[in-house]
């Protein structure tokens, strides 16, 4: 059963990626790239987008983690989102991390990289003109898991990291996230008993960052009940967790190529950021 789910996940996530045509890709060129981590011959980088006049005043930041089951994926998945929120006044950052297809890596390596990226961003906050009290981690599917992991998972820290710097973001925006890796959740055949340390669902604690989850009601991989259970646990520790349901939508519904859904999710994201005081309401 787990193998069938894994194959299904691969097929669905491949079909849901935003693989931008070359002319579209050129629209979303980052203003800066930075290497945040080197593992042997592998260099992992960030693509950074700056808003206008960002040097005059520190800005909030949104850090994006692409999906792909920790097996593959494209750093460009959230490039349209990065450009959109750049125009809204955020520093936006796309994160590259190790995946099985390219690096023969494990899901645990991906979590380690996500935490390294967040620590690097905070460490470089002054240079990047980021308000480090307003950093949002965002991701889709397995990227949603990584975003949540930076907030909730204590294990899997790189020996090269300064662990005195917390990787924890101030808020989370999660698209159909892989948040339950337990025996009934996704990835258990790869994670095993480590799920107790790896699964966001099983590591929710007090002061978990305010979270919004955007999910299709016909998601083939992430049951609506899983998301509802997550909210119940967040409620029990006194943390904000909003759920936005998208009727009849499937896994990957939020990507740029799904124009109507993409625009709808931006509206919901904007309201969440307004409620947090990170974004001003349009006049």
How is the secondary structure organized here?
Blueprint: H1 2-16, H2 22-27, E1 32-39, E2 42-49, E3 59-65, H3 79-87, E4 91-95, H4 100-103, H5 107-123, H6 125-128, E5 130-140, H7 142-152, E6 171-175, H8 188-191, H9 195-198, E7 211-216, H10 224-236, E8 241-246, H11 259-276
Parallel strand pairs: 3-4, 3-5, 5-6, 6-7, 7-8
Antiparallel strand pairs: 1-2, 2-4
Would you write up a description of this structure?
By secondary structure, this protein is an alpha/beta fold. It has one domain: Alpha/Beta hydrolase fold, catalytic domain (Rossmann fold, 3-Layer(aba) Sandwich). The chain is built from eleven helices and eight strands. Strands 1-2-4-3-5-6-7-8 form an eight-stranded mixed β-sheet, with helices on both faces. Strand 3, helix 3 and strand 4 form a beta-alpha-beta unit. The longest helix is centred in the last third of the chain and has 18 residues. The radius of gyration is 17 Å and the shape is globular. The termini are far apart. The N terminus is likely disordered.
Unreliable spans: 1-23
Biggest sheet, spatial arrangement of strands: 1-2-4-3-5-6-7-8
Oligomer: single chain
Gap between N and C termini: 51 Å
The helix-and-strand class reads: alpha/beta
Number of strands: 8
Give a quick account of the main beta sheet: strands, pairing sense, barrel closure: 8 strands, mixed
Q: Look at the structure and give the mean pLDDT.
A: 93
List the secondary-structure elements in sequence, H or E: HHEEEHEHHHEHEHHEHEH
Radius of gyration equals 17 Å
Q: Can you tell me the CATH superfamily?
A: Alpha/Beta hydrolase fold, catalytic domain
Q: Architecture, according to CATH?
A: 3-Layer(aba) Sandwich
Q: What percentage of residues falls in helices of 4 or more residues? A: 25-40%
Number of domains: 1
How large is the count of helical segments?
A: 11
Strand content: 15-25%
- The outline comes out as globular
Pfam families: BD-FAE, DLH
Keywords: Hydrolase, Signal
Organism: Plebeiibacterium sediminum
InterPro entries: AB_hydrolase_fold, BD-FAE-like_dom, Dienelactn_hydro, GDXG_lipolytic_enzyme
């Amino acid at each position: 059963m787990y193998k069938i789910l894994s194959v299904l996940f691969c097929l669905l996530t491949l079909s849901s990626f935003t693989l931008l045509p070359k002319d579209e890709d050129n629209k979303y060129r980052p203003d800066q790239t930075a290497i945040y981590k080197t593992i042997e011959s592998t260099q992992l980088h960030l693509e950074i987008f700056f808003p206008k006049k960002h040097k005059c005043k520190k800005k909030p930041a949104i850090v994006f983690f692409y999906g792909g089951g920790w097996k593959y994926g494209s750093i460009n998945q959230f490039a349209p989102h990065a450009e959109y929120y750049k125009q809204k006044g955020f520093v936006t950052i796309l994160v590259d991390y190790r995946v099985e297809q390219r690096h023969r890596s494990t899901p645990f390596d991906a979590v380690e990289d996500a935490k390294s990226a967040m620590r690097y961003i905070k460490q470089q906050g002054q240079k990047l003109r980021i308000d480090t009290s307003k950093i949002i981690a965002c991701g889709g599917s397995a990227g949603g898991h990584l975003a949540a992991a930076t907030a909730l998972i204590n294990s899997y820290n790189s020996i090269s990291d300064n662990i005195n710097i917390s990787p924890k973001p101030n808020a989370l925006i999660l698209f159909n996230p892989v948040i339950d890796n337990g025996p009934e959740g996704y990835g258990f055949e790869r994670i095993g008993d480590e799920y107790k340390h790896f699964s966001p669902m099983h590591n929710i604690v007090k002061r978990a960052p305010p979270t919004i989850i955007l999910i299709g009601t016909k998601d083939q991989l992430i049951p609506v009940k899983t998301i509802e259970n997550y909210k119940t646990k967040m409620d029990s520790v006194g943390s904000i967790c909003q759920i936005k349901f998208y009727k009849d939508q499937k896994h990957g519904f939020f990507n740029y190529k799904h124009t109507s859904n993409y625009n709808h999710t931006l509206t919901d994201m904007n309201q969440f950021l307004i409620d947090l005081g990170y974004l001003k309401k349009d006049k």
